[in-house]
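[job 0412] stage=fold_complex status=start
inputs:
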Amino acid sequence: MNLADREQSSGYLAHLKHRETSDIPRLWDLLDCVMDPEIPVLSLWDLGVLRNIVDDHGTIVISLTPTYTGCPAMDVMREDLQSVLYENGYKNVRFETCLSPAWSSDFISLQGREKMQQYGIAPPNPDYCAGTCSSSKPVVSIACPHCGSKHTKQVSEFGSTACKALHQCLSCLEPFDYFKSI
Amino acid sequence: MKNSTQQTAVLEYAIRLGDDATVLGHRICEWCSNAPFLEEDLALSNVALDYIGRARLFYGYAAELAGDGRSEDDFAYMRDEREFSNLLIYELPRGDFAYSIVRQVFVDVYSLAFLTKLQQSSDATLSGIAGKAIKETKYHLRRSKDWILRLGDGTQESHDRTQKAVDALWGYTHEMFELDAIEQQLADAGIGVDSTALKADWLVSIKAILQEATLSLPTEEWAVRGGRSGYHTENLGHLLTEMQFLQRSLPGQEW
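[job 0412] stage=fold_complex status=done
writing structure:
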């Protein structure tokens, strides 16, 4: 599956719909400047964490979905969103946690995947299967975000944050983070 | 619409599931900076973080249902040992690495089945939490299963330690598949999980994993139970002493 196909996944399309059908597009555009605290090239929209924005009689209601339940960055994300809204005159803001449908790496935008790659993090690949995997999926390897080699190995199922695993390129020998596909 | 008895039962259920996650999450945290090597340290800390996240969701829901001003922190930090209702297997000490891995295999296989059922709960919040948590549990299981195979089918030393852990933990697994009146009531109402129905499949999976890891299934049947009624091993008190220290000394303190 190539990047363009991935963009069309049903999870992403459902995610996109909130934004495309919104009657307050300026707020979505405004909040595009709020980045993920751990991957500062990705906006919360690109990451798929910012799920919906609704104007409830003057109160801006922001729906966020955690990538992982224990993600410690959620508090920082809320603060960052709140401060951007405040600076732009939106004083009444409420946050809601949206658990269902659960966040999936499919929600990451195509643009987000490209930015992630350029930043040195291999984007999620649903066809990749780590560890002892009993499925009949063909063996695919993760391409090194630095040199593009597919001659890589997984070093650890978990990396520097809950959403990433640690890999190493066997061609250029650089270690790199792989954004897990869930 | 739930009646008030049912609402109280759901509150209790959310606290129990929160207790399970908090206690195990804290237990796994004890590996942070103590794991065999750096990558494993990161992995265990990440698993612990998933459990703490899960605990926050369950406690958060409990706080919402209680509606008496208690927060998720009150449930975690301001209750005594006898008020905790986690299953005993979650509070047992971290032991050696084999012990922690074997426990993780036992509870990961269980959680996967449990959360699959909880996803079908008629309670939208419980179902939503389960849908979120199951993705993490799948990941945990893949890793813990990988490890038990390496340890069991590794050196004589790793094999012996792993077998010892299997034998030592076995008697604590039965409690996972028992229901008390509250859980039975919720299972009947389609809100909770009938965990008695999960045991046969759990046993099949565990047998297969142990066999592949060249380990034997314990033949000696013994069972320790009591966690759901607040009767704990001595280990929980020590865990809470450390975990609750700050909030006990400085109530309401925040970062």
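[job 0412] summary: Chain B has ten helices and no strands.
[job 0412] exit 0
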